[in-house]
Design a protein that fits this description.
The structure holds 3 protein chains of 3 kinds.
Chain A (H helix, E strand, L loop, with lengths): L17 E3 L4 E5 L5 E7 L3 E7 L4 E7 L8 H6 L5 H14 L8 E6 L14 H15 L6 E4 L6 E6 L5 E5 L2 E4 L1
Parallel strand pairs in A: 1-3, 6-7
Antiparallel strand pairs in A: 2-5, 3-8, 4-5, 4-6, 8-9, 9-10
Chain B lengths: L2 E6 L3 H13 L4 E7 L2 H10 L4 E4 L8 H10 L8 E5 L4 H9 L3 E4 L4 H12 L21
Parallel strand pairs in B: 1-2, 1-3, 3-4, 4-5
Chain C lengths: L3 H14 L3 E2 L4 H4 L3 E10 L4 E8 H12 L3 H5 L2 H24 L6 E2 L3 E2 L13 E7 L2 E9 L10
The chains are: A alpha+beta, B alpha/beta, C alpha+beta.
Chain lengths: 177, 143, 155
């Protein structure tokens, strides 16, 4: 992924210590100066976890809900799918000192690909969200905040590793999540 | 203080869902009690000290609305915190229930919505903003 | 525009049971035999019945997802599956009535009762029927409204 041109005053302007999370990618960080950024979330989900005590953050950019459609691909890249990427995201955070009972989860994305919901034949965004909710519920984790859905919405998401603050940009406007 | 909770719903699966959210809510908990209809619910209220009731409306034997009217008529439970968790969608009826001093959560609910109502009604501010329980809760977890 | 019944049914599957449901079902989904059913009778401005029938794997997925368990954990428990289908019928019924009759209308819903899945094969005339594909199976949802009560003849 190439970053869009840096914009004046935007918190999303790329900084030296930013880590860009690509499509079907997962990254974790615990350096207080770092930020995690992902671009162009359409029907994909950007799933953020943060442990405010260990100050560990993780960001998964998952494309599709269910790895059962292509086990070999999921084996090579579990971050492509929600059902394999989310367990990976959590387990990797534990390796950096995060603890499940402290983790705060936020999500953005899951938009409809059509101009209206009815035009979205495959409903990938909705299926992604249902899979995420199912995984979190089964594993006793509640969602802290979400900015999801909408039609043909592209979102950019940035996570401040130290504070866990998440900013979402969509339709040209930035807001905290 | 710890909250003793009574969950009244004719669906065992729904009672289990509600109980799971209460446990994840961050509210300090004492004993859990369950009832399958309003009559059983009133019996549990007579037998145990209860601090919070989560109550369905459409139930056999005695529905939740009747149970609510009866418990409000008793001095001991006239101000007991009650959250009605129901598929009821009529604004008229929801308003009538709210006049009996209850909070209302519409089915289907998200766990986050129910948790927010539980915190509001109990007045509990969890010490932290944590949303999960330890992995060592005995469940079959993926992560 | 999807029918009110389809809207209420898909959103209930999604939110209550974390299952993606879509009409019409694929040919493979449509062949899954219906094994579990529940109905909810209601009275109010209109009286009637909401009937839900599902195939076995949908009943398993309903119970497992609502409880946050693996499907294998509920496969052997018939009572849990019946209970989950009953609760689904209750929630679909409560959510479809305001879409049909308006948010002011007051209905009284009876508790859900298990019933024969074959009822779905012969819905009463005038009933709204939606068949949805869910995972590898299907669900049939039927809303029947009784005829408005005729004025009683004077004795």
């Amino acid at each position: 992924m190439t970053a869009p041109p840096a914009q004046e005053r935007s918190v999303l302007s790329l900084r030296a210590k930013d880590i860009v999370v690509g499509v079907a990618d997962v990254r974790l960080a615990k350096d207080p100066g770092e930020r995690l950024i992902t671009y162009a979330l359409g029907s994909c989900l950007g799933i953020v976890i943060h442990d405010p005590v260990a100050k560990v953050a993780g960001l998964l950019h998952a494309m599709l809900p269910d790895s059962s459609i292509d086990r070999a691909k999921a084996e090579r890249n579990p971050a492509m799918f929600v059902d394999t990427g989310v367990p990976l995201l959590f387990r990797e955070s534990y390796r950096l000192g995060a603890r499940k009972e402290r983790i705060v989860v936020k999500v953005a994305g899951g938009a409809h690909s059509g101009a209206t919901e009815a035009e979205d034949t495959f409903q990938i965004g909705k299926r992604n969200l249902i899979m995420l909710r199912k995984l979190l519920w089964k594993n006793n984790v509640l969602l802290h905040a979400h900015d999801v859905g909408g039609c043909q919405t592209s979102r950019t998401l940035v996570v401040d590793v130290a504070s866990g603050a998440v900013t979402v940009r969509s339709h040209g406007a930035e807001s905290p999540l | 203080m710890a909250f003793n909770v009574l969950v009244v719903d004719d669906s065992a699966v729904m009672r289990s869902m509600i109980t799971r959210v209460v446990k994840l809510s961050g509210v300090p908990l004492g004993a859990f009690h369950e009832a399958g209809n309003g009559e059983e619910g009133l019996a549990k209220l007579r037998e145990h000290w209860i601090d919070l009731v989560l109550l369905d409306i459409n139930m056999p034997v005695m529905n939740g609305e009747e149970m609510l009217r009866r418990l409000r008529a008793e001095p001991e439970t006239s101000r007991l915190p009650v959250i009605v968790v129901s598929t009821e969608s009529s604004e008229t009826r929801v308003q009538a229930l709210e006049e009996l001093g209850v909070a209302f959560v519409h089915k289907p609910f998200t766990p986050e919505d129910l948790r927010a109502t539980i915190l509001r009604v109990t007045g509990v501010t969890p010490d932290d903003e944590y949303y999960a329980v330890p992995a060592a809760d005995g469940g079959d977890f993926d992560f | 525009m999807p029918s009110p019944l389809l809207t209420a049914a898909t959103s209930t599957f999604e939110s209550l049971a974390l299952l993606f449901a879509e009409a019409p079902p694929t040919a493979a989904q449509a062949e899954a035999p219906l094994t579990h059913a529940a109905r909810v009778a209601f009275t109010g401005p209109r009286a009637g019945t909401l009937h839900v029938a599902v195939s076995d794997d949908v009943a398993v997925a309903l119970a497992a997802n609502m409880l946050g368990l693996d499907p294998d954990a509920v496969r052997g428990d018939e009572a849990l599956r019946r209970d989950a289908v009953g609760e689904l019928a209750n929630v679909v019924c409560g959510n479809v009535l305001p879409l049909v009759a308006g948010r002011e209308a007051v209905f009284h819903l009876a508790a859900p009762a298990a019933c024969d899945p074959s009822d779905a094969a012969a819905p009463p005339a005038g009933a709204l029927v939606e068949v949805l594909g869910v995972d590898d199976g299907r669900a049939a949802v039927t809303l029947s409204l009784d005829a408005p009560a005729a004025p009683r003849p004077l004795p």
